[in-house]
TrEMBL record:
Residues 16-127 form the CENP-V/GFA domain. Keywords: Lyase, Metal-binding, Zinc. It comes from Schizothecium vesticola. The keyword Lyase applies. Belongs to the Gfa family. It comes from the Eukaryota. Pfam families: GFA. This is Glutathione-dependent formaldehyde-activating GFA. InterPro entries: CENP-V/GFA, Mss4-like_sf. The keyword Nuclease does not apply. GO terms for molecular function: carbon-sulfur lyase activity; metal ion binding.
Amino acid sequence: MESIVAYELGPLPEKITGGCLCGSLKYEAHFPENHDFKDNSGTCQCTQCRRSTSHLFFIWQKVPFSHFKWTSPSTDSLKNFYCTPGNARGFCSSCGTFLYWRREGGPNINIPIGTIDPLYLFGEGWEDSGGEVPKNGFGRALANGCGGHEWTRNEIAGVTDELELVGAGPKGRGERVEAE
């Protein structure tokens, strides 16, 4: 099986938009000109991420916090939960959507891939984007997994340990793969 690392990422977005399931929280993130989509894509298999995302692993695209902004009229439903002191997991208190992981005071925000709008993720509505978005979106660039995989000591044998995505980048066994 050929590794995803060898694949081209395809077109790269200048920005993305996204939000929660109920639509009360919406965001926009602009990527710096030198944004490395491979290094800033990763996964985590820790128990906290599994439980907060209700999935086998959390997959993200890391963006400088200074390039992220809320675009919804209000952020009243935005709440933070702290499993670990100083590490915020943002979520919508109306619908429960997990919207980010962020080390307080850190320079980055990790955006869950599943919260990115369909236009940017897989191209739904691309024909109305005026050429801003390609037919199939930017999913490959955003969710490539090449940046690293955290807490792989919690891999599920025969399930998450054999996924091509999780094999794309360096694995950490309970330590952060790269410092923020």
